[in-house]
Design a protein that fits this description.
The complex is a heterodimer. Chain A is mainly alpha-helical. In chain A, 32% of the residues lie in helices and 4% in strands. Chain A has helices at residues 5-14, 24-38, 73-77; strands at 83-84, 87-88. In chain A, α1 (5-14) crosses α2 (24-38). In chain B, strands 1-3-2-4-6-5-10-11-9-7-8 form an eleven-stranded mixed sheet, with helices on both faces. The longest helix of chain B has 22 residues, at 374-395. Chain B is globular, with a radius of gyration of 21 Å. Classes of the chains: A mainly alpha, B alpha/beta.
């Protein structure tokens, strides 16, 4: 199934990446080439094969549910492009 | 001073112990070498003052007889590792200015044993690339050149700055990370030993995530013994990484007898590719002969799903990357492109902050995970991954290690293979299968191409059997006796 211009725009929207209109044709070509190449997987019969969920054979460990010290708030906020009064600042999202 | 930058870790440790040099002298020699080789663009952040401070502290500990395993060893650290208060940007524009308030577990292990940080090494953006040409900070130049041709070559990728730094003798060793070959392929391109441990051997905590089910930390060094010493310190169980595996870390260097009599070496038929350069095939045959002549048992094996590893990887890795890289939204760190609308702010920030290859992979990943395509692509790829891993499990009934080429070519020139993403992806055709199966792999420099460039052979080991794999690599190192040096190692004047 070919990826058309509308699909590129839909994927870009889902991925939250702004794509200029004039770039969509080129992107569609690139993505189609890659998807056509991975299409060869369909020739393998995977009926009854369990999908791999972990590459190492371990039981996921449990840890105790305790509060632990992490980096101080102001250290975390020091990396923010915009912070104020101990908060991250974002554009207004509620009316 | 040049002698100090020619040492291995093992040699430098001995020199420090015998008081032939100080840690400060060792650091100064490497800093001078780094300054002379800035044209390689191996470092994206130099931390020379920090290095000198660490070296002075090392000298104090050494004088008190309290030196650690890597006391005073000047290292390059891939920019993917979070280092507290120091530039850590995965060589992406989107992490502009990010200085982590914490230290990755692997680098914390290194500092605890006295290692010294020279700087953060250049790399492909978010470790996505095989030639170090996607870094926001520019290309890295391989210190090796073709005979009679000074066209700049790629160092491989994604750990290209790490590889160039070690090959050019501006760091004693370096950390890299390997998702589909990002340690082993640059090691092969730069004439180094590159080790990717078993998935779960080194903690991923504090290493900026690309594809979490594949990413693994490992060293790039100029000898197998150095790889063993680095792994000794980098490996640990870490409760902060839920995929870290709690098994003891053996004394890897102690396993290096170089004795391979009776070792069962598997040679997989499926790695013989159509159109593979004859010199790669000849080197592989040479490697097989070395083992046979030393009394190892050569076993022909089949890994039937090998050809599907790369396309499987290009579903799994982009899927995981699209999820991992969702966090870069212009809110908590790095770049922000202001907009009065929140979604627009996200979209503009990510369009500006991510390079073309990263955007391409996020888009592919988003597509294969999207409603209606998940089963056809992502689930299918996870099933293929089970089959690829099963191939190896069956092989382990017959062999102890697997021997293959590391990469299908020697280093190529900057600008080559750039127009076609798939041609670039094929660099990892021999390294991706072990990654898909979570297995350890090591590239050892084994010979030179007709153009005088290094070529590597890869050993793949059983899970958590790095000790035996390293010993087999030590044997190959002795047999190959690789002593060639890059022409561009001595800096800009060369």
């Amino acid at each position: 199934m070919a990826i058309d211009k509308a699909t590129v725009l839909r994927i870009a929207k889902l991925a939250r990446i702004e794509v200029a209109d004039e770039a969509t044709d080129g992107l569609a070509d690139e993505l189609n080439a890659i998807m056509a190449w991975v299409e060869q997987l369909s020739e393998v019969d995977t009926e009854g094969v369990e999908p791999m969920t972990s590459v190492v054979d371990i039981t996921p460990p449990l840890r105790s549910d305790t509060v632990e010290a992490v980096a101080p708030r102001d250290d975390i906020l020091a990396n923010a492009p915009n912070a104020e009064d101990g908060f991250f600042v974002v554009p207004k999202v509620v009316e | 001073m040049s002698a100090l930058t020619d040492l291995t870790i093992a040699g430098a440790r001995a020199a420090l112990e015998k008081r032939e040099c100080s840690a400060r002298e060792l650091a100064e020699a490497h800093i001078a070498a780094a300054e002379a080789a800035r044209h390689l663009n191996a470092f994206v952040a130099e931390t020379f003052d920090l290095a000198l401070g660490q070296a002075d502290a090392s000298d104090k500990r050494l004088a008190a007889g309290e030196g650690g395993l890597l006391e005073g060893m000047p290292l390059a650290i891939k920019d993917l590792y979070c280092t507290k208060g120091v530039h850590s940007a995965a060589c992406s524009h989107i992490l502009d200015g990010f200085k982590p308030p914490y230290e990755s577990t692997v680098t914390a292990n290194l500092w605890r044993e006295g290692a010294v940080m020279l700087g953060k090494a250049n790399m492909d953006e978010f470790a996505m690339g095989s030639a170090n040409v996607t870094s926001y900070y520019g290309n890295v130049i391989n210190p090796w050149q073709r005979e009679g041709d000074n066209k700049p070559l790629v160092p491989g990728g994604s750990s290209g700055g790490s590889a160039a730094a070690v090959a050019a003798r501006i760091a004693l060793a370096a950390t890299g990370t390997d998702t589909g070959g990002s340690i082993r392929q640059p090691a092969a391109f730069c004439g180094l030993v590159g080790l990717k441990p078993t998935y779960g051997r080194c903690s991923r905590w504090g290493i900026i995530a690309f594809a979490s089910s594949l990413d693994q930390a490992g060293p790039l060094t100029r000898s197998v013994e150095d790889a063993a010493l680095m792994l000794q310190v980098m490996a640990s169980y870490d409760a902060k990484d839920s995929t870290s595996v709690d098994v003891p870390v053996p004394d890897y260097a102690a396993a290096l007898s170089g004795e391979v009599k009776g070792l069962r070496v598997g040679v997989p038929a499926e790695y013989r590719l159509d159109g593979m350069p004859e010199e790669i095939e000849a080197l592989w045959r040479q490697g097989i002969d070395w083992y046979r002549d030393a009394g190892a048992e050569i076993v022909d094996i089949s890994l039937p799903h090998t050809k599907y590893s790369l396309p499987t990887y290009y579903i799994v890795a982009p899927a995981e990357c699209s999820s991992n890289l969702a966090r870069y939204d212009g809110v908590r760190y790095g770049l922000r492109e202001e907009d009065s609308d929140l979604t627009q702010m996200y979209e503009r920030t990510r369009a500006k902050g991510f390079g073309a290859e990263v955007q391409r992979r996020i888009m592919i990943g988003t597509y294969v995970l999207s409603a209606g395509y998940y089963d056809a692509y992502y689930l299918k790829a996870q099933k293929l991954r089970t089959l690829i891993a099963r191939d190896f499990q069956q092989a382990w009934e017959k062999v102890d290690v697997v021997l293959t080429p590391t990469a299908p070519s020697a280093a190529f020139a900057i600008g080559e293979k750039m127009d076609d993403p798939i041609a670039m992806y094929l660099n990892d055709v021999f390294t991706v299968p072990a990654s898909m199966a979570g297995l350890p792999g090591i590239s050892v420099p084994a010979g030179l191409s007709a153009e005088g460039l290094p070529l590597g052979l890869q050993l793949i080991g059983q899970p958590f059997d790095e000790a035996r794999m390293l010993n087999a690599a030590r044997f190959m190192e002795i047999a190959a006796d690789f002593t060639a040096r890059p022409a561009g190692a001595s800096g800009g004047a060369a």
